């Protein structure tokens, strides 16, 4: 087979690849997709022009006119239109009997109101094709040959050291019967096999059972007490269950997190996850979240993680800090809201105490995982130093529940004593008629950030919980029954809420959008209960204290973008995106249908 020439690599350019069969690229068939409003499209057609039709006459197909890769967009009514400002530029194209390559570029910010800026947020790419060329009769419908994929086009790539010869061990469930219910958290204890000398884990890969890609929503790996013995390894059990083993309660420190849509994670060359010493994990708990909304019966799962490690030590040990909103019913979102903002605080007080005691020079954050559930629309990790806001630590303004992975930072960020972090989550509940509660189900919500950093210190959780009583006062609650003997607790007065749980009372309240907006403004200013945890269930002294949230600018003011029109292609400094559509008949069906 012919070898295609290597693509030129210019500084600041990024590449992405997609694969579909060679003949019959159906750019103009994009209108038959389930189109989304206000999307930007590139239509690529191969062959030579013969009157009004495109015929398939020459191989390879050589584009000599940049207009053969036109720039289209959809309006608010999902109608496909040609963009009067053409911002996509063909670099080259070629084809043989099995492959087609279209290489095109576009500036990240075009100043075109019909284009979406390309940022570090998630980008949803959709595609369609037909295996036959267009003929005199006109277009062929693509049928099921269409799909979508969420990507982070600007997620910086990492040079990966070959791990083919490195040892590894797998932590996988063994024939777990997934219950026929919406949400299951399954926990299984494992013992790290490397126990006698220090090693570094350099890469973690998800091992998701084939066909269960949508069933396994996330996997968390916790470090447990080193005082356990092998008897805890006998069986798994549902997490957060009244009858779960007591040993599970010793597992509080998150050492790795994977979520749906994510791929394997490779640590930077100077950092690794330490195993094999007395301070390192010996017993670990793997928590797998099964999302089974159709309540399918008879599912058996064997998913898990593969940890690749090396005896060649890196300079630093990696740590993980869970930041954001402590998962509880005190986090709640009214129904019918097009936007509602929740904030979780990694407070100045917690960081001052933990960093001041263990690492006054600060820690270096190199990757962040932003986590929410189905109502999530955008997440930002805001960073403040001595009260002054810094550049966003991480963000995703196009959050996709089905695509959550660690984002490598372009530059490592130092977190110092005196800093504070705010995880800001934006939700939409326009399609819901009842309150959305913080909780474990994907129909509940979370607002979390997982920070990968070095060097490792004894801080595992830096989070907050908003005050619940002031939330209840908003809907008119005056008194609850004390002492609190039930959960959720019961309201005593006023009469309309008497003997209702606070959840029932919040659902009974008649929420309007204006009431929801006023409630949102109140919640963001409420005092918070500080969560500041160490390993082995220990706590920093600030744990449980009440703190006021910092006075910050709301809403967050995004940084102005520097964009260039298509007439400025000769400008010396601009970022460009290089996209490659690599088309091969051997990869049909690699991507599922877009519905």
Q: Care to give the gist of this entry?
A:
Residues 169-296 form the Copper type II ascorbate-dependent monooxygenase N-terminal domain. This protein has 595 residues and is mainly beta. It contains four helices and 41 strands.
Secondary structure category: mainly beta
Q: How many helices?
A: 4
Sheet-strand content, in percent, reads 35-45%
Oligomer: single chain
Question: Which sheet architecture does the biggest sheet show?
Answer: 7 strands, mixed
Cofactor: Cu(2+)
Keywords: Disulfide bond, Glycoprotein
Domain Copper type II ascorbate-dependent monooxygenase C-terminal: 316-464
Protein name: Monooxygenase DBH like 1
Describe the overall structure.
- InterPro entries: Cu2_ascorb_mOase-like_C, Cu2_ascorb_mOase_N, Cu2_ascorb_mOase_N_sf, Cu2_monoox_C, DBH-like, DOH_DOMON, DOMON_domain, PHM/PNGase_F_dom_sf.
- This protein is mainly beta and 595 residues long.
- It contains 4 helices and 41 strands.
- The strands form 11 sheets. Strands 32-28-35-25-36-39-40 form a 7-stranded mixed beta sheet, covered by helices on one side.
- Strand 6 and strand 7 form a beta hairpin.
Secondary structure: elements and pairs:
Blueprint: E1 13-14, E2 17-18, E3 40-42, E4 48-50, E5 53-55, E6 71-74, E7 80-82, E8 89-95, E9 99-107, E10 123-128, E11 146-151, E12 168-172, E13 176-178, E14 183-191, E15 199-207, E16 216-223, E17 237-238, E18 253-259, E19 265-266, E20 271-275, E21 283-291, E22 299-301, E23 304-310, E24 316-317, E25 319-325, E26 332-333, E27 340-346, H1 348-358, E28 363-371, E29 376-385, E30 388-389, E31 394-396, E32 407-415, E33 419-427, E34 436-437, E35 448-454, E36 461-466, H2 468-474, E37 479-480, E38 491-493, H3 502-508, H4 513-523, E39 528-533, E40 546-547, E41 576-584
Parallel strand pairs: 1-41, 2-41, 20-24, 25-36
Antiparallel strand pairs: 3-6, 4-5, 6-7, 8-9, 9-41, 10-11, 12-23, 13-22, 14-17, 14-21, 15-19, 15-20, 15-23, 16-18, 16-21, 25-35, 26-34, 27-33, 28-32, 28-35, 29-30, 29-31, 29-33, 36-39, 37-38, 39-40
Pfam family, one: Cu2_monoox_C
Cofactor: Cu(2+)
Keywords: Disulfide bond, Glycoprotein
């Amino acid at each position: 087979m012919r070898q295609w020439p290597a693509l030129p690599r210019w500084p600041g350019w990024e590449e992405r690849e997609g694969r579909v069969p060679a003949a019959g690229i159906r750019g103009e068939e994009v209108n038959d997709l389930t189109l989304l409003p206000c999307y930007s499209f590139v239509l690529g057609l191969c062959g030579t022009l013969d009157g009004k039709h495109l015929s398939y006459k020459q191989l390879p197909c050589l584009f000599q006119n940049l207009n053969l890769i036109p720039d289209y967009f959809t309006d608010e009514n999902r109608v496909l239109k040609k963009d009067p400002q053409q911002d996509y530029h063909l670099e080259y194209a070629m084809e043989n009997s099995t492959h087609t390559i279209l290489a095109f570029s576009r500036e990240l910010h075009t100043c075109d109101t019909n284009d979406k800026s390309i940022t570090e947020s998630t980008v949803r790419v959709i595609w369609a094709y037909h295996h036959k060329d267009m003929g005199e009769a006109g277009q062929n419908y693509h049928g099921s040959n269409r799909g979508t994929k969420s990507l982070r086009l600007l997620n910086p790539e990492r040079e990966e050291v070959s791990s083919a010869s490195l040892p590894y061990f797998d932590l996988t469930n063994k024939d777990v019967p997934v219950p026929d219910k919406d949400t299951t958290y399954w926990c299984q204890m494992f013992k790290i096999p490397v126990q006698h000398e220090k090693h570094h884990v350099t890469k973690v890969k998800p091992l998701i059972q084939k066909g269960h890609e949508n069933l396994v929503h996330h996997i968390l790996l916790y470090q447990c007490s080193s005082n356990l013995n092998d008897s805890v390894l006998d069986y798994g059990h549902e997490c957060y269950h009244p009858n779960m083993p007591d040993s599970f309660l010793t597992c509080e420190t998150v050492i790795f997190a994977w979520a749906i849509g994510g791929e394997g994670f490779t640590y930077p060359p100077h950092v690794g996850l330490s195993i094999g010493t007395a301070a390192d994990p010996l017993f670990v708990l793997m928590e797998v979240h099964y999302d089974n909304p159709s309540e399918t019966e008879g599912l058996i799962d064997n998913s898990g993680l593969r940890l690749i490690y090396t005896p060649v030590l890196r300079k630093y040990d990696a740590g993980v800090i869970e930041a954001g909103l402590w998962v509880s019913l005190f986090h709640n979102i009214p129904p019918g809201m097009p936007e509602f903002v929740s904030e979780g605080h990694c407070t100045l007080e917690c960081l001052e105490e933990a960093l001041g005691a263990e690492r006054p020079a600060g820690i270096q954050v190199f990757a962040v995982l932003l986590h929410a559930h189905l109502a999530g629309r955008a997440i930002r990790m805001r960073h403040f130093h001595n009260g002054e806001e810094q550049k966003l630590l991480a963000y995703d303004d196009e959050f996709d529940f089905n695509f959550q992975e660690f984002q490598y930072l372009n530059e490592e960020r130092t977190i110092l004593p005196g800093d504070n972090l705010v995880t800001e989550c934006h939700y939409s509940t326009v399609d819901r008629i009842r309150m959305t509660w913080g909780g474990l189900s994907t129909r509940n919500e979370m607002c979390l950030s997982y920070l990968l950093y070095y060097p490792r210190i004894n801080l595992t959780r830096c989070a907050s919980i908003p005050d619940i009583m002031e939330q209840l006062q908003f809907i008119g609650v005056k008194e609850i029954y004390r002492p609190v003997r039930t959960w959720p607790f019961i309201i005593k007065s006023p009469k309309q809420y008497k003997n209702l749980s606070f959840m029932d009372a919040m659902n009974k309240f008649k929420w309007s959008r204006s009431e929801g907006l006023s409630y949102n403004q109140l919640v963001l200013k409420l005092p918070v209960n500080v969560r500041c945890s160490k390993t082995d269930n220990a706590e920093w002294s600030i744990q449980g204290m009440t703190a006021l949230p910092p006075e910050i600018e709301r809403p967050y003011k995004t940084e102005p973008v520097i964009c260039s029109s298509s007439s400025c292609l000769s400008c010396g400094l601009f970022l460009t995106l290089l996209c490659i559509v690599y088309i091969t008949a051997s990869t049909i069906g690699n991507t599922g249908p877009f519905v």
